[in-house]
Amino acid sequence: MTSAQQLNAQFGIAGQLAFHEDDSGLVVAEIDNPQASATLCLQGAHLMAWQPKSQAVPVVWLSRDAQLAAGKSIRGGVPVCWPWFGAHAAEPGFPAHGYARTTPWKVIESSIEPSGATRLTLRLVESKKTRAHWPHDARLELTVSVGETLRMELCTENTGAADFVIGEALHTYFRIGDIGAAQVTGLADCAYWDKAGGSTLKKQDGIIRFAGETDRVYINTAAECTIEDDALKRRIHVAKSGSLSTIVWTPWTAKADRMGDLGQPDGWREMLCVESANAIDNAVHVAAGTRHTLVVEYRAEPL
Question: How many domains does the chain have?
Answer without folding.
Answer: 1
